[in-house]
Amino acid sequence: MTGALTARLADIAAQADVSEATASRVLNGKPGVAAATRQRVLAAVDVLGYERPARARQRSAGLVGLVIPELTNPIFPAFAQVIEQSLSGYGFTPVLGTRMLGGATEDELVGQLVERDVSGIIFLSGLHADLTADPTRYARLAERGVPFVLINGYNESISAPFVSPDDQAAAAMAVDHLRQLGHRRIGLAVGPERFVPTRRKVAGFIRAVGEERPYIQHTLFTVEGGHAAAGALIEEGCTGIVCGSDLMALGAVRAARQRGLAVPHEVSVVGYDDSELNAFTDPPLTTVRQPVRAMANAAVHALLEPMGGSPMADTEFVFQPELVVRGSTAHAPDR
Fold first, then answer.
1. pLDDT-derived band of residue 60, with 50, 70 and 90 as boundaries?
2. What are phi and psi of 240, to 5 degrees?
3. pTM metric for this prediction
4. Which segments of 75-210 are extended strands (E)?
5. In angstroms, what CA-CA distances link 135 with 19, 104, 130, 257, 283?
6. Tally of CB atoms within 10 A around 114
């Protein structure tokens, strides 16, 4: 270790919350440091803006594919970042494949990853979550000896480890919050019905509102989709709107304001995911937070087992979400 890194060893150790001796072992490529600790030290080097010394760069233990949807929704890059950090901590090199309209399909990305001889693949919100898609593509992947883990979207037709948030609890949590604020007519703006997370949110919502005629609008998980759905729900008299994503919630806020309604004093809006930007929106967005770090780390650990030779688990790991109250919800208006 030379130059600036030598002078900044104390800063790196403090950032990583380790001793200077431990930080020095990592930066000099010495053995005897736990993988998680090594990862923290290297992450500290990155955060502080230093280049990793050559001796700290370990030879890759193999490639692991990560297949995600488009990058415009902040929740997907958030998952990707944690997964990549976790894989790097175990010595694996992540290979990112992004599905985009007009770009490579999931099957094409998988084919490219298999050609590169990846040790395993993590799918985030992929075709496994779409009940109209053919699940046998994953059976074929297993037959080729490629371990994989699926995040967001349990499918009983696929034998694999799943990592999911409790979408039913998330929707119920949002409804309970609005009920406590006095809202009596609450609507749900959510994505297409063919997706498993959508169906689970709808089930949780219906159970929580307990109405004969629940107010539900299916649309796209986008700002435009949220705008359209919220407009219809507001016309139905809803004063509280639960959204299937934060992007939809931002669209819902815009729809309310276009109708001359103040958020949150006339219409309250709850998002889902919790991007780091939510605290800086206008108003700051109340949302249900996906436990991204815990889910991402669980997915990596679930993949490491079969990559190490153990049988691939056939189970779903379900994680509890958390309500984060900010400025987009308030007591229901007097009407």
1. low
2. -130, 135
3. 0.84
4. 92-98, 120-124, 148-151, 162-165, 186-190
5. 49, 19, 9, 42, 41
6. 15
